[in-house]
Amino acid sequence: MAKISVIGSSSMDLVVTSTKRPGAGETVLGESFTTVPGGKGANQAVAAARLGADVTMIGRVGDDHFGQQILRNFEENHVRIGYVKPVTHMESGTAHIVLAEGDNSIVVVKAANNEVTPAYVEEALDAIRSSDIVLIQQEIPAETVVYVSEICAKYQIPFLLNPAPAREVEKSVIENATYITPNEHEAAIMFKNMSLQEALRKYPHKLFVTEGSNGVRFFDGEQEVVVPTYKVEAVDTTGAGDTFNAAFAVALADGKSLADSVKFANRAASLSVTKFGAQGGMPTRREVEEQL
Ligand code: RIB
């Protein structure tokens, strides 16, 4: 069983569905309001656990009702939470999501996730060192991403950076990462002084650019490869990227080839969008294998 450490955010998603997305200064009437567990880190941890990995989450929640619900959700999904400690006198992270016109818009308030500091992560060094792969995203402080990239390089632990949400990334993090999985927008910000083609060639076998329904693009050392996605009827695309990253990490840790790992991840991500909520449609391993 693949051992995976996920270092990242755990939040509560506050989701409103509406037929119309409000513009600046506009008020629209919504249809429903739901709270579901989310946060890119937590989503990736839950997705990897459903796919059969032994997952340790390294994150933080607030000492509030959302924090308790987030912890319970981890337990229900068999994610280890010894390193998800509540922060005293601070709220849990929240994501304010509008689902409208076939897509989402999200505002994230990081709150307790800001306390996923390098010093805090250091407490989990043993878990990190015994991992087959480490997954990290960008809803936690940038210095933590730098720190984790350094310890993974030092101990030669494969390290997958999902650079979402978009921000500029230290060059050392890019060099230390084993795999980087931006979407096109995130890639443009990370590699702002080069074209996408140049970036792909500079980082063969490392840079995997997710291009929505077009598929996932990488450079295999000789040519650009595009692994196509699967067409499905999407109910809610929130968390599809997280499912992709988790499934990619699980497949890589299992020893699948790069192309097969992307294929497995694309299949898992396509299943994830068929149900409501970031984690609602995340598939089990059996469900992915049946579809493959
Ligand atoms: O990637 C989807 C996630 O992004 C949501 O669950 C929300 O929490 C935001 O952080």
Automatic annotation (TrEMBL):
Its cofactor is Mg(2+). Activated by a monovalent cation that binds near, but not in, the active site. The most likely occupant of the site in vivo is potassium. Ion binding induces a conformational change that may alter substrate affinity. It catalyses: D-ribose + ATP = D-ribose 5-phosphate + ADP + H(+). CDD domains: ribokinase (cd01174). Its EC number is 2.7.1.15. Belongs to the carbohydrate kinase PfkB family. Ribokinase subfamily. Homodimer. This is Ribokinase. It comes from Paenibacillus brasilensis. The gene is rbsK.
